[in-house]
UniProtKB/TrEMBL annotation:
SUPFAM superfamilies referenced in this protein's UniProt entry, alphabetically: Tetrapyrrole methylase
Pathway(s) the chain acts in: Protein modification; peptidyl-diphthamide biosynthesis
Gene designation per UniProt: dph5
Role played: S-adenosyl-L-methionine-dependent methyltransferase that catalyzes the trimethylation of the amino group of the modified target histidine residue in translation elongation factor 2 (EF-2), to form an intermediate called diphthine. The three successive methylation reactions represent the second step of diphthamide biosynthesis.
Any one GO biological process: protein histidyl modification to diphthamide
Protein name, per record: Diphthine synthase
One MF term in the entry's GO annotations: diphthine synthase activity
Protein origin, superkingdom: Archaea
HAMAP family with a match to the protein in the record: Diphthine_synth
Subunit details: Homodimer.
Keywords assigned by UniProt, alphabetized: Methyltransferase, S-adenosyl-L-methionine, Transferase
Annotated EC: 2.1.1.98
Record domain Tetrapyrrole methylase: where: 1-226
Reactions mediated catalytically: 2-[(3S)-amino-3-carboxypropyl]-L-histidyl-[translation elongation factor 2] + 3 S-adenosyl-L-methionine = diphthine-[translation elongation factor 2] + 3 S-adenosyl-L-homocysteine + 3 H(+)
Length: 266
């Protein structure tokens, strides 16, 4: 049995009760933190709280060499852990399909994701979001600006009146000069806003920092203004709102201190 367990957004306690029970009942636990991580806990915290040993795999160890995980799951109960949800954004469908092809039973225990949190903390209605994008560090795509694909997606959503979640780049084990096991870099909301402000300086955006944590921040303003702020420790994301329902406008004003002049009158 291979059980995919989402750990949620913040620390060792963010997992669901079902996920915690499955993790404690497993014979072996693997995890990856190159797609995302818990901002309030490290591996030692997870191991102590859940009373398990966790083997952390890098990207190559999951995507190119999954046999240790799959071999273990053929004869025992194995848990595979990620921050957030293992099948949303940090998707591991390929690993699940490989297990199914080998006749290994699988199941998924979902966790809270940045996607659902972005809607919940901003007050923007989840069914009014369009296609999401990831904003990479400029060095990661060989350029010095925002990739055209990101601009096109945001513009297409705005033309349809839809909100856009902008996930911010994470680089773990990979630096500007190539593979680096000690490298960890997390794009901040102000850095992202600065990149996007070259295209939409006066456009309303919402910065979300450390969603799910006790010290989360939600701030709405022009991209050029958000670029001047410091949102603290990771993880961050941005939301570019589309057309606003009056309840959404009220939420951005009341929950994110959006300037009145940037909101529709009603």
């Amino acid at each position: 049995m291979l059980t995919f367990i989402g750990l949620g957004l913040h620390d060792e306690r963010s997992i669901t009760v079902e996920g915690r029970e499955a993790l404690r009942a497993s014979d072996r636990a693997f995890a990856e933190f190159y797609t995302s991580r818990l901002v309030g806990a490290d591996v030692a915290d997870l191991e102590a709280y859940h009373e398990v040993e966790i083997e952390v795999r890098d990207r190559a160890g999951v995507e190119q060499d999954p046999d240790p995980i799959l071999n273990a799951a053929e004869t025992s109960d194995v848990a595979f852990l990620t921050a957030g949800d293992t099948m949303v954004s940090t998707t591991h469908t390929d690993l699940r399909l490989r297990a199914e092809e080998r006749g290994i039973e699988t199941r998924v225990i979902h966790g809270v994701t940045a996607q659902s949190a972005a809607s919940g903390v901003t007050g923007l209605q989840n069914y009014r979001f369009g296609k999401a994008v990831t904003l990479p560090f400029p060095y990661a795509h060989g350029g010095d600006s925002v990739p055209e694909s990101v601009i096109e997606t945001i513009e297409a959503n705005r033309e349809r009146g839809l909100h856009t979640i902008v996930y911010l780049d994470i680089k773990v084990g990979m630096g500007p000069r190539g593979p680096d096991p000690d490298h960890e870099e997390y794009m901040s909301a102000d850095h992202a806003a600065d990149l996007l402000a070259t295209e939409w300086a006066d456009v309303l955006a919402v910065a979300v920092a450390r969603a799910g944590s006790p010290d989360s921040i939600v701030a709405a303003d022009r991209l050029s203004a958000l670029a001047e702020r410091n949102f603290g420790d990771p993880l961050h994301l941005l939301v570019i709102p589309g057309d606003l329902h009056h309840v959404e406008a009220d939420a951005l004003a009341g929950l994110a201190d959006a300037p009145a002049e940037l909101l529709p009158e009603h």
